[in-house]
What does this fold into?
Amino acid sequence: MNKKISVQGKWKRVFDFDFRTRAFFTIVTDRYKIVLSGGSVKVSDIETGKVLFAWSGFRYLYTGDVSPDEKVLAALENGKHFYIFSLETFEPCGRVTLPRGYESIDGYPSFSPCGKELLVPVSRYSGEREGYLYYICRYDARTYQFVAMEEIGRDDFPAWPVPL
It folds into this structure.
């Protein structure tokens, strides 16, 4: 097992690579415990442990973040999409496709401190530079419309740890 706890952003996030539990990424907020297993997302009440929401059938859905007001879960797949879930109705609200030619591999999204933007790390291979280029995409957190993209260095890419 290779476990790393991060408190980047408002909520505690646990990167856990124990394949026996299939709880690869856990977000702990004031009200919820959210477990992403690659193929599913499960939201439980932090006090009672009661499962409030469970949805499966995903591929490579490993990381996410919860809005500062605890109303929205953004779950990022390893690939070309992220998903939005309401933590008020416990329903999926949509799937957003990343900009064409970019994908998110081993990165994790973050809501801005004010909750107005969702920051999503993406990359693409550049044959000219003989390597990957890294970016942060900014999305409006009300509509999840793409706002802007900025290039960042590899060391600034919010990536989850690679298992040893």
Q: What stands out?
A: The chain has a mean pLDDT of 89. The CA atoms of residues 116 and 141 lie 5 Å apart. The longest strand covers residues 51-66. DSSP finds no helices and 13 strands in the chain.
